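Quick one, probably user error.
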């Protein structure tokens, strides 16, 4: 098997058949064998039903893994990688925003350029709102300052890599998976090619603003412990400020005898310090929570059904 296309699907009933046909068309006459590994991420619509039809038809090699509930795209990618048998593995969405023709191109680039292990597509033009792209830019500048591995702002999950890279990705068995970080973390020589995302074929995006914010936080907590150090610095700074203020108050009282009406100051300081403390406990809590979840060592996904072509 030369190429495995790993396709996470969540409520993509209207798209899976069209995607499958687009793959058949794009890979016509490619001269090598390829498989599509569909991962049904606990869809609530007819996605699984439609995937089973595609599996039954076997117009090309089709595998279907179906989750017992929605575990998220990251878990779906992990499951897909586990079941992929190709020498090259390509991650691609089911909604036809990423054309399968580009996947074929990426596979031939890996053929032509043995010095690269990964070909990743980045979006040259983004059709998203100004507000969203502002927040995305902020996120990347923050995470690049905090994290040791570097993140490329416009890179996506749409990429094709060699088996060895897939193995490395699978060796990171963390339950809070942030694939952008995992790709950067495992390293390897990556060739970036531009692509333009098409509009969604059908259905709607699964990303709300709130989900994106949580995802961003996940990335920062997962790939940096600097927020903990920042919390320590904030603590030191406020303590230093308090000591300076204390000295100033004592001097004032000794030399000028001014009785300071301190009621408002006291309230403000209590609130300020309380706020800072809660903020820092919150940061620590994030890490403790993530540690707790990892220590439980639960599986990343549960498959209730796996249909293979072998
Ligand atoms: N997806 C998934 N599980 C989820 C959310 C999304 O498997 O919980 C899949 C989805 O079916 C699609 C891909 O991940 O194939 C990308 O999702 P989407 O198109 O909503 O993201 P966008 O393209 O808007 O970033
Ligand atoms: Mg999409």
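Nope, works fine. Designed sequence:
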């Amino acid at each position: 098997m030369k190429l495995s296309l790993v396709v996470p699907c969540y409520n993509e009933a209207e798209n899976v058949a069209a995607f499958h046909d687009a793959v058949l068309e794009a890979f016509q006459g490619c001269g090598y064998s390829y498989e599509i590994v569909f991962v049904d991420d606990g869809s609530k619509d007819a996605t699984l039903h439609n995937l089973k039809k595609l599996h039954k038809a076997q117009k090309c090699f089709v595998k279907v893994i179906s989750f017992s509930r929605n575990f998220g795209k990251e878990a779906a990618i992990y499951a897909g990688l586990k079941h992929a048998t190709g020498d090259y593995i390509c991650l691609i969405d089911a909604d036809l925003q990423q054309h399968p023709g580009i996947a074929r191109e990426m596979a031939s680039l890996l053929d032509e350029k043995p010095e690269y292990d990964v070909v990743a597509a980045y979006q040259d033009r983004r059709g998203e709102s100004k507000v969203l792209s502002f927040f995305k830019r902020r996120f990347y500048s923050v995470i690049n300052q905090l994290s040791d591995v570097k993140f490329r702002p416009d890179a996506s999950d749409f990429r094709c890599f060699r088996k060895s890279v897939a193995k490395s990705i699978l060796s990171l068995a963390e339950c809070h998976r942030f694939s952008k970080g995992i790709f950067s973390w495992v390293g390897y020589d990556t060739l970036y090619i531009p692509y333009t995302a098409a509009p969604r074929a059908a259905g709607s995006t699964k990303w709300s603003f709130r989900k994106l914010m949580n995802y961003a936080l996940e990335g920062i907590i997962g790939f940096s412990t600097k927020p903990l150090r920042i919390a320590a610095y904030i603590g030191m700074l406020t303590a230093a400020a308090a000591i300076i203020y204390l000295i100033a108050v004592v001097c004032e009282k000794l030399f000028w005898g001014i009785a300071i009406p301190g009621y408002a100051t006291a309230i403000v300081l209590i609130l300020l310090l309380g706020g800072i403390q809660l903020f820092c406990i919150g940061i620590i809590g994030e890490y403790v929570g993530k540690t707790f979840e990892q220590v439980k060592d639960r599986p990343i996904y549960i498959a209730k059904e796996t249909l293979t072509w072998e």
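The longest helix spans residues 263-296.
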